[in-house]
Amino acid sequence: MLLIFVRAQFDYDPLDDDLIPCAQAGIAFRTGDILQVISLIAYRRYPAVNCSFFGRKKKQHKDKYVAKHNAVFDQLDLVTYEEVIRLPSYRRKTLVLLGAHGVGRRHIKNTLIASHPDSYAYPIPHTTRQPRKEEENGKNYYFVSHDEMMADIAANEYLEYGTHEDAMYGTKLETIRKIHHEGRMAILDVEPQALKILRTAEFAPYVVFIAAPSLQNMTDTFEKNTFFLHQYDGSLERLAKESDLLKQAYGHFFDLTIVNNDIEETIRQLEKALDTMSDTPQWVPVSWVY
């Protein structure tokens, strides 16, 4: 018997479905639930059994680090189901930190790398700007010509790229592969559209959403969390709204969500999850395995 499992990428309540003949016979599920398909019928509507008891789970520059063809990708990204397989263990190669701008991703990334330099690294970006005094090529940046960078962009060799103060910056895919070849996990704090490139067996990402505290708790959090006071220069409402919008649009890609009520506690939760991940059974996309 062929066993088929899918991860739900949307919330569903049969009581709200006018097309189901018998709502009481339907099964409710939420984004991220694992469903076992027991039969395939017309229109690919999945009668299923819920299998999620196995485990649930500085200022922004508007044109900086824009993934290629984002608008087209977002329009074609139809959220339905994703076929998955349960493995006793699976090595993730890339840690992807998603979240609203100013929620703390950069601080989390830098802390993890500083605390565990043998386990994590950040890909060195490429730039077309001239090196400053005492800057070394390949240390903080790779310095390239504008023509060279444009040629590599045309060849789809960049994950993200954009302009800032008349210079181009970008993350080249080969710099991520280099970290993997060194036996370390690459940490990326990217725009969510980059997942269209990263969600493959080659990069095997573990996607963590760093959520902003609720607006109700935000004021207290800002008063006692000096990280936010120094890092975020926008309104609390804007931070909360951006966080909510990201969750609505991309929540079906999240492997883990941590509400950043306290930056140090958030880092501890993330470290614990990463330490146990390789020894914990995981549901991963079938396309990563076969």
SSE topology:
Blueprint: E1 4-8, E2 34-37, E3 48-50, H1 70-76, E4 81-87, E5 94-99, H2 105-115, E6 120-121, E7 126-127, E8 142-143, H3 146-154, E9 158-164, E10 167-172, H4 173-181, E11 185-188, H5 195-198, E12 205-211, H6 215-224, H7 226-231, H8 236-250, E13 256-259, H9 263-277, E14 282-285
Parallel strand pairs: 5-11, 5-12, 6-11, 7-8, 12-13
Antiparallel strand pairs: 1-2, 1-4, 2-3, 4-14, 7-10, 9-10
Helix pairs in contact: 2-9
Provide structural commentary:
With 290 residues, the chain is an alpha/beta fold. It folds into two domains: 4-54, SH3 Domains (SH3 type barrels); 70-288, Rossmann fold (3-Layer(aba) Sandwich). It is 30% helix and 22% strand. It contains nine helices and 14 strands. The strands form three sheets. It has a five-stranded antiparallel beta sheet, with no helix packed on it. Strands 6-11-5-12-13 form a five-stranded parallel beta sheet, sandwiched between helices. A hairpin with a 2-residue loop joins β9 (158-164) and β10. The radius of gyration is 21 Å and the shape is globular. Residues 53-69 have low confidence and may be disordered.
